[in-house]
Write a structure and sequence with these properties.
The protein has helices spanning 3-8, 10-13, 18-36, 41-51, 58-67, 74-99, 110-114, 116-134, 141-162, 171-196, 201-228, 231-234, 240-243, 249-257, 260-270, 277-289, 292-312, 317-332; strands spanning 103-104, 107-108. The chain is an all-alpha fold. It has a single domain, classed as Farnesyl Diphosphate Synthase (Orthogonal Bundle). Helix 11 runs antiparallel to helix 17. The longest helix has 28 residues, at 201-228.
């Protein structure tokens, strides 16, 4: 069965569920593997190493859910899904270097195998390849969507990098960082799918708003996993945000809970550079005493309600139903967060 036939089947034309997601992703994985064969030989095997090693494929699924109303554009949906996923993985290659992460998707990160210099060039090659593919559409709109999202994603990462070790970052600044670094590619996924399917400009704008909101929530979730998740459950290094001086929601909420003097004192201790085991233990105990994990979970669940409301207001009812279904599967991922309030970055055994 071709993807077009799959999209025209009774299963795909009903409200898509997990089986339909799996069907689309099966086509996507084959398409992605084939398109990587057009890369230059020195890059090809490395690109396949980082792109075909698994992943949640959230962005391709968003493209599919926002564009599957028009079966005539299914090949284009696969192509733009691959483009956005390539950009996403390029950012991960660079992020892992910046964070000194050793594990990604339950295997060694690429920079630990080929060195930082080569890994940086690999990320650059992937960015370039994605934008080259985007120029092959007969309209410049797709290239504009993808290139704009790529630029803002990099800007968000730069802003967050500049803010490392600055524990005075406000909640609004944190939202600005993560909306750009994660939300923009979610937005691009939704809007490119809706555009290719021929939806109205109002629907195009609404799904973009949904993508930004979902991306922000997803990054909050990812930050909470980094603080409270378990490495064996998520297949990557955890606690890297804390170790690299990134300000995330748990620390922002902790500083808000402390008195002014306590907050200033703790920030001063953390700003010395190396965080001692004693200081790690102190921060962990403060997070437990002030129920920071619970506060973060309540906050995230409220944000998710807002994202659901946006999905409910999407003009196309079939798309609205698909996005709400996707939200349900996303909420199930909250189980990756440990029920234990003890932050995983304490690493007492180090």
């Amino acid at each position: 069965m071709s993807l077009k036939e799959f999209n025209q089947s009774d299963s795909a034309l009903s409200d898509p569920g997990e089986s339909d997601d799996a069907g689309f992703l099966a086509f996507f994985e084959n398409y992605l593997s084939d398109i990587l064969d057009s890369l230059d030989k020195p890059v090809r095997s490395l690109a396949k190493r980082v792109l075909l090693g698994g992943g949640k494929r959230i962005r391709p699924l968003l493209v599919y859910h926002c564009g599957s109303d028009s079966p005539d554009v299914t090949d284009d949906l696969l192509k733009v899904s691959a483009i956005i996923e390539i950009v996403h993985v390029a950012t991960l290659v660079h992020d892992d270097i910046l964070d000194r992460a050793k594990v990604r998707r339950a295997r060694a990160t690429i920079h630990t195998e080929i060195g930082d210099h080569s890994a940086i060039l690999l990320g650059d090659a992937l960015f370039s390849f994605a934008l080259e593919l985007a120029t092959e559409f007969p309209t410049t709109r797709i290239c504009n969507i993808v290139s704009s999202a790529t630029r803002r994603t990099c800007s968000g990462e730069i802003m967050q990098t500049f803010a490392r070790g600055n524990y005075d970052v406000a909640l609004s600044d944190y939202f600005s960082f993560i909306q750009d670094k994660t939300g923009e590619l979610f937005k691009a996924s939704c809007q490119s799918g809706a555009f290719l399917a021929g939806h109205s400009e109002s629907t195009f704008e609404m799904v973009g708003e949904f993508g930004l909101s979902l991306g922000l929530n997803y990054q909050i979730f990812d930050d909470l996993v980094d603080s409270f998740g378990q490495s064996h459950e998520v297949g990557k290094c955890l606690g890297t945000d804390f170790d690299s001086g990134k300000i995330t929601l748990p620390l922002i909420f902790l500083f808000q809970k402390l008195s002014t003097d306590e907050s200033l004192s703790l920030k001063a201790e953390m700003s010395t550079g190396s965080v001692s085991l004693a200081l790690r233990k102190k921060i962990g105990e403060l997070m437990i005493d002030h129920e920071i994990r619970h506060e973060c979970m309540v906050f995230l669940q409220e944000k998710l309600k807002g994202t659901k409301l946006i999905a409910s207001n999407v003009g196309c009812k079939r798309m609205s139903s698909r996005l709400l279904g996707f939200m349900s599967s996303f909420e199930e991922k909250l189980s990756f967060l440990s029920s234990d309030n003890l932050p995983n970055f304490l690493a007492f055994n180090k």
